[in-house]
């Protein structure tokens, strides 16, 4: 049963059980990465057979396999994928940054170019736990950014095929290439390249502890989006909300995995009890009830705060991945929220809207990193290059200042590189 605590009876760090010791997989991951770096496709075939029970001789998904998947997926889901993709495109298109140029001073031009990375690699969990939503959320911003080639790696099923819903989402999103490989070995393949899989510049997407560790180890060779921790939801609600709604929302994250954290902060102890009772009614009805039960019992909490203002401050300190404001007039509180991955406003806006359909990204900062990082966006797939141009006359007006500055740092060659261009008889 979920714990009901008064604010002050538990520290902020304990509310989401962050920092819980996890199994150290760094050694295993290092070995896999080294194997893939040295042996390429041969290592990938070996790991597919070992971990996925799939014996393959080709890693890339063919056009025939994509079309077969589209035929297998029911028409209604294809239409829903298309509508979700439209919403995601509409939202992320507003994030596009433009290059700029400044030419306010005679003879001086400075500017910035916004350039997409050449190739992006998206990791998508597959097999029995298939997430087509991840395909849409991670590939559409890359396409909007202008990435030339978007590649997906995803684990095959035992029959050697990719889950059809993942392929259908990839077709809808316009993904360029799809490869049948999962786990740390997929991250290594994207980072180093193999005979079949091209090296990428950016790796994004969720995964288990092995995937997260692999992303951490290859960072620097390639860019990554983030190191994601267990899923989190914090719901702020008062006693005007339907407790069944809140219980359902808490369980929407608890069913992810046993390490997920689902927390309610409310100003009403009576409401806290009602939500607890609703959880006990709803958990047994879930197909993933064992996972949800473990998550709620071990990591779930209901915190009773003095008022909604205090509840908002708790949310800011925790900086949750998902924050629901299940209150009347939620926009009254929006400006007060400083730290959250994604905010869901009002009593009829479940977090699931963000997972699948609304448009904002569902790849979000976890473990309190929303205090300094952001959801996945178009920005993740571009880089900026700046440039400077001065004429001789323009340089002559500032060369002495540049030299003076350089000499203050003891860098006389820096100083000379400016003044030599403006000395007499030097062109």
Brief sketch in words of this structure:
By secondary structure, the chain is α/β, with parallel strands linked by helices. The protein contains 17 helices and 14 strands.
Structure description:
The chain is an alpha/beta fold. The chain has helices spanning 12-15, 26-39, 41-51, 63-72, 75-93, 132-145, 164-173, 183-192, 209-218, 243-254, 269-282, 289-299, 308-318, 331-334, 351-356, 392-408, 412-419; strands at 3-6, 100-102, 108-116, 119-123, 149-154, 177-180, 202-204, 223-224, 232-237, 261-266, 301-304, 322-326, 342-345, 382-390. A 6-stranded parallel beta sheet has the order 1-11-10-9-12-13, with helices on both faces. Strands 6-5-4-7-8 form a 5-stranded parallel beta sheet, with helices on both faces. β12 (322-326), α14 and β13 form a beta-alpha-beta unit. The longest helix is centred in the first third of the chain and has 19 residues, at 75-93. The protein starts with a strand and ends in an 8-residue tail after the last helix.
How large is the count of helical segments?
A: 17
Helical content stands at 40-55%
Radius of gyration: 26 Å
Total beta-strand segments: 14
Query: In angstroms, what separates the terminal alpha carbons?
Result: 81 Å
Describe the main β-sheet briefly.
6 strands, parallel
Shape: globular
Low-confidence stretches: none
Record the strand order, biggest sheet. Answer: 1-11-10-9-12-13
How much strand?
15-25%
- Structural category: alpha/beta
Please state the average pLDDT score.
95
Chain-wise SSE layout:
Blueprint (H helix, E strand, L loop, with lengths): L2 E4 L5 H4 L10 H14 L1 H11 L11 H10 L2 H19 L6 E3 L5 E9 L2 E5 L8 H14 L3 E6 L9 H10 L3 E4 L2 H10 L9 E3 L4 H10 L4 E2 L7 E6 L5 H12 L6 E6 L2 H14 L6 H11 L1 E4 L3 H11 L3 E5 L4 H4 L7 E4 L5 H6 L25 E9 L1 H17 L3 H8 L8
Parallel strand pairs: 1-11, 4-5, 4-7, 5-6, 7-8, 9-10, 9-12, 10-11, 12-13
Antiparallel strand pairs: 2-3, 3-14
